[in-house]
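ESCALATION

Customer reports they have been waiting on this structure for their group meeting. Please prioritize. Original submission:
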Amino acid sequence: MYILWSSQIFKIKGNYNLIYMASTNPNKTVEGGEFDVYMREIKYFPESQLFQFAFYFKYNGKCLPRYAYADRKEGSLFIKNLFIGLGPLYDAFQPVYVTEDTIIGLYSNVNLHGIASMTVELFTRSTSVTQEEFDIFLDFVRQQEILEENLVYVSGRDNCPVLSPTFSVLQALSP
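Update from on-call: job pushed to the front of the queue and completed.
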C-alpha cells in the first residue's frame, strides 16, 4: 500500500476517467465484457456518508448511464448497487493510492455465477497518466499477481458521452 487511505478519503470527489485496468479474469475487461465501464464522476454525500460513482456501462455497443453507491467500511468502500439491471452480487472497491488527480484502486467482484475477480484500476481527472503514475499502477498489478498481459488501456476505447446533467438518487430523495 502506498498511503493511508483513510487520510485521503475526501480527495476522492469530482470528475474521473478510467484509464487502465488489469484483472485476474481478462474476459471481464474486454470490450463487451462485464467490466466494460467508463467512469465519469465520484461524489461524496456527507449527510449519508455515501459515495456515488457515476459511470457508463457498455451493453451491446450502447453506453448506458449507471450509478453505484459505496459505504465506507473499515478502510475500504463496499459498493451497494441501488439500480435494477445487469450487475454483480458483491463489489468492493479499495483505494490504494490517492492524490489530488489520481486514484489507483483494487476492485473485487463476485458475479451472479459466483465467479470472483480482482481488478486494479487507474483513474485520473485527465485523459492520460504520467510515467510515474503508470509505474505505481503496474507495481500494484504485480503485487496482486495479475498478469501484465491482462492490462487494458480503457481510455482508448471510451466513446461514451459526458454525463449531463448529473442526477443522483440521493439528491432526488432528499427533502
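Sent to customer with the following note: The first helix runs from residue 26 to 29.
Escalation resolved.
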